[in-house]
Design brief:
Layout (H helix, E strand, L loop, with lengths): L2 H17 L7 H24 L9 E9 L4 E7 L4 H17 L8 H20 L3 H10 L1 H11 L4 H29 L6 H4 L6 H18 L8 H8 L2 H26 L1 H6 L1 H20 L4 H20 L4 H32 L15 H15 L5 H16 L1 H26 L6 H4 L6 H19 L2 H19 L5
Antiparallel strand pairs: 1-2
Helix pairs in contact: 1-2, 1-4, 2-3, 2-4, 3-4, 3-11, 3-15, 4-5, 4-6, 4-11, 5-7, 6-7, 7-9, 7-10, 9-11, 10-14, 11-14, 11-15, 13-14, 13-18, 14-15, 14-17, 14-18, 15-16, 15-17, 15-20, 15-21, 16-18, 16-20, 17-18, 17-20
């Protein structure tokens, strides 16, 4: 078993073990086992970066075994410079989520921790899969634990939110399955993704495949107008569910564009770029305005995530290295920043049991340590230079300006809107006089909460001040992808 298999199956098997321990009879043991499993799963991923060769675009740490031999489906894993950081990000966020739930979740603790560990392994599988059918199995399997997490531990409308999340994402993915089967026959009975990159396709075939993949990935990102499931899912999900949704699950759709849409259907991707760019700019501008009027903190940050992911898809379809690399950096930084924003909302909700901005005011007077973290993450969400939130947005804007100045100008409005809705929330929640007795009774963060926020703050600061390790890792793979996409496949 190689490193990637360990990164996938260690958390999955640990999650299954936790399910077997019984509901609430062994809560303390369950929490420690979950933490040990999450940390071990993260440690397993570290050699993927320390041993990664930045000089090649080839898949590394590959494992290739027969799985369903009759249909030539293989258990083929591997990562390149585009995928490797997301494996680490997934494992890292899982550790944070386990720490965040330590005292907050007190019923069905084993199932809660087990669901997140299983989800973590499945998401690593999505980023590692090099066989189309294996990718589809992992991609769809992510729905099950997240559906359970929202449906069991969510808010009052959790069943509605869970169904909406499941149906939206499942419906989009069914078209992708048809596309995968078509490519299987077109390529001579192969599910190898890299083989599909070189299959000759007519423009009509490429267009149909492009929109089949688009249906699956646009819902997952989510892009406007198929974004409406996300605010509901975020509002009803427990804090850990919101963190994983924003930090990792949205990235699965954006990753799919780079793994399938661009290399498999390059001519259609070029031809229909205007559609993706238009929808991305609507997400950046319109959704930014929608975020401005939100009264629920979770909804505000959820809409903020849609706007930031619009930046990612915009960068990918600029077809230059600055745009694609910027989109990838934005995906990683958004994982840190949005995860931290939802954790901060969770800290307040655990104490006051309200997400309404009007329920707070003057939190800095009673929770100064927590406010320092919250304001720092808010500044990163605005794209403040020196934080992770700035680097990717700056690169995407530069990439857009290279294509068209007005595209870059429209894209840069996200910095203005982002600052507007984020600072508006910060001002009303954290500053001013103490607003009510609930705020007056607040106690500052404990050691556990300090640890999880400090880990994310360090990640946001390090990536903001020194993004070179991230861009160096992805440079060769992005360059190779652009070379491939530039070559027409029309037969």
């Amino acid at each position: 078993m190689g490193l990637l298999s360990l990164a996938i199956w260690l958390p999955i098997l640990s999650g299954v073990l936790l399910f077997a321990l019984g509901r609430d009879e062994h809560v303390k043991a369950v929490r420690w086992l979950a933490l040990v499993a999450a940390i071990a799963s993260f440690v397993v991923t570290i050699p993927l970066i320390t041993g990664f060769d930045n000089a090649t675009a080839a898949m590394q740490f590959q494992e290739n075994l027969a799985w369903i031999e009759r249909f030539n489906v293989r258990y083929h894993l591997g990562v390149d410079g585009i995928a490797v950081w997301f494996v680490l990000l997934t494992a890292f966020i899982t550790v944070i989520v386990v720490i965040a739930a330590w005292e907050v979740i007190d019923t069905r603790v084993n199932q809660y921790m087990g669901a997140f560990l299983i989800l973590s392994g499945i998401m690593v599988g999505v980023f590692s899969a090099q066989d189309g059918m294996l990718f589809y199995v992992f991609f769809e399997a992510t729905l099950i634990p997240m559906y359970i997490i929202i449906g069991v531990w969510g808010g009052p409308r959790r069943v509605y939110a869970a169904f909406k999340f499941f149906l939206y994402t499942l419906a989009g993915s069914l078209l992708m399955l048809i596309a995968l089967i078509f490519l299987y026959f077109k390529s001579g009975s192969s599910f190898e993704i890299t083989t599909w990159h070189n299959v000759p396709l007519t423009m009509t075939e490429q267009t149909l495949l492009f929109f089949a993949f688009f249906a699956a990935f646009a819902v997952k990102v989510p892009m406007w107008p198929v974004h409406t499931w996300l605010p509901d899912a975020h509002v009803e999900a427990p804090t850990g569910g919101s963190v994983v949704l924003a930090a990792i699950m949205l990235k699965l759709g954006a990753y799919g564009f780079l793994r399938f849409s661009l290399p498999v259907t390059p001519d259609a991707a070029h031809h229909w770029t205007w559609v993706v760019v238009a929808l991305s700019l609507i997400a950046v501008v319109y959704i930014g305005l929608v975020a401005l009027v939100q009264q629920d903190m979770k909804k505000l940050v959820a809409y903020s995530s849609i706007a930031h992911m619009g930046f990612v898809t915009l960068g990918f379809f600029m077809f230059n290295e600055l745009g694609i690399s910027g989109g990838l950096v934005q995906m990683i930084s958004h994982g840190f920043v949005s995860g931290a924003m939802f954790l901060c909302i969770g800290v307040l909700y655990d104490r006051v049991h309200s997400r309404e901005i009007s329920s707070y005011g003057g939190v800095v007077n009673t929770m100064p340590k927590f406010t320092a973290f919250a304001v720092f993450f808010a500044m990163a969400n605005c794209g403040l230079p020196g934080t992770a939130g700035f680097v990717g947005e700056w690169m995407v804007i530069l990439g857009a300006v290279k294509v068209n100045f007005w595209l870059g100008a429209l894209a840069s409005t996200t910095l203005v809107f982002g600052a507007a809705y984020t600072l508006w929330m910060v001002k009303r929640v954290y500053f001013g006089a103490v607003a009510n007795e609930d705020v007056r009774a607040l106690k500052d963060i404990n050691a556990r909460e300090y640890l999880m926020l400090a880990l994310l703050a360090i990640a946001v600061l390090v990536m903001g001040l020194y993004p070179k390790p991230f861009t160096d890792t992805m440079h060769v793979s992005v360059t190779e992808l652009l070379k491939h996409v530039a070559v027409s496949k029309l037969n």
